[in-house]
Specification:
Layout: H1 2-12, E1 32-33, E2 52-53, H2 59-64, H3 73-97, H4 106-132, H5 137-166, H6 171-193, H7 203-215, H8 218-237, H9 239-258, H10 276-304
Antiparallel strand pairs: 1-2
The protein binds zinc ion.
Transmembrane segments: 76-97, 109-134, 146-168, 174-195, 207-231, 237-258, 279-296
Biased composition (Low complexity): 14-26
Protein name: ADIPOR-like receptor-like protein
């Protein structure tokens, strides 16, 4: 009895600091939350009704969350593995492919380096963003900026080898189009990174700039067709594959924006597997792989066909 009264006395003693309010969130590290249980700043797609990690401002906690299954697992791992594959394949190409052609030079390495750097940064930053979504609001916002920057870098990095091989005999055009793409890319990076441009009032301009960046490839492709004809440009730049890779991005972006298939329900079916964002990620990987294959063909034509043979006017 005595002990109990002491305990009761201690409980009401005003000098004792108040005990923290009991958390309504589960404390098991791999427990998952429903849409209703997550904080407002984490809410993005209400068709994903569950599978949310517990948020905690800890890198260790974030890292541990990679080990169990939740609604960001596919998004994180798809692009994390993609980033690793980008590094491995660039190393392989550098050591195995380059020595096959005596006339391959530093410019080949440079233009492929631009593509691989863009791909690695895009996939790595995307995986980082998805991992940080359960860290804290500040980190999620910062990760979101990284995610957009990565998209810009991948698009710009993809243009460089296509322009180099496609317009090898028209160096002035390479310069013009590189200035165009770098200007658009810098603009998109600015509106993605600077808080002043990240407001809802700027949303239409941001969207318009990204669409302009993505569609700007139509201009050099159409221009190249008028110079070399479709098959001539296909030999030089693999435009069939360039167009296919663009179509994959557009297909993925349309699914992402329309939130299909999860919007068709039933609720919860696509929380862990098969959501629009995951399909979008796979489209990005397939598109990057297709572009690399296309640039490989352009490289082959450049060094074994007529791609590097320029007729003087
Ligand atoms: Zn993503």
């Amino acid at each position: 009895m005595g002990d109990q009264s002491t305990l009761r006395q201690r409980h009401v003693d005003p000098s004792t600091p108040a005990a923290p309010a009991p958390s309504t969130k589960p404390t098991i590290s791999n427990a998952l939350l429903s849409w209703d249980a997550i904080d407002h700043w984490r809410r993005d797609n209400h068709y994903i009704t569950g599978g949310y990690r517990i948020d905690k401002p800890s890198y260790h906690h974030t890292f541990l969350s990679l080990r169990h299954l939740h609604n960001e697992s596919v998004n994180i791992w798809s692009h994390l593995l993609g980033a690793v594959i980008a590094v491995l394949s660039s190393t392989y190409l550098y050591t195995q492919i380059k020595p096959r052609y005596e006339n391959a030079n530093q410019q080949d390495v440079l233009v492929f380096g631009c593509f691989f750097t863009g791909a690695f940064l895009c996939l790595g930053m995307s995986a980082t963003f998805h991992a940080l979504l359960s860290h804290s609001q500040d980190h999620a916002k910062w990760g979101n900026k990284l995610d957009y920057m990565g998209i810009v870098l991948l698009i710009v990095g993809s243009y460089v080898p296509a322009l180099y091989y496609g317009f090898f005999c028209e160096p002035l055009l390479i310069r013009y189009y590189l200035v165009l793409i770098f200007t658009l890319g810098t603009g998109c990076a600015l509106v993605s990174w600077v808080d002043r441009f990240r407001t809802s009032a700027w949303r239409p301009y941001r969207t318009a700039m990204f669409i302009a960046l993505g569609l700007s490839g139509i201009v050099p492709v159409a221009h190249g067709v008028t110079i070399f004809g479709y098959s001539g440009l296909d030999d030089r730049m693999s435009i069939s594959l360039v167009i296919l890779h663009g179509a994959m991005y557009i297909f993925g972006a349309v699914l992402y924006a329309s939130r299909f298939p999860e919007r068709m329900g039933p609720a919860g079916r696509f929380d862990i597997w098969g959501s629009s964002h995951q399909i979008f990620h796979l489209c990005v990987l397939l598109a990057a792989g297709t572009h690399l294959y296309g640039m490989g063909k352009a490289f082959d034509y450049h060094h074994t066909g007529l791609g590097s043979t320029c007729v003087l006017n």
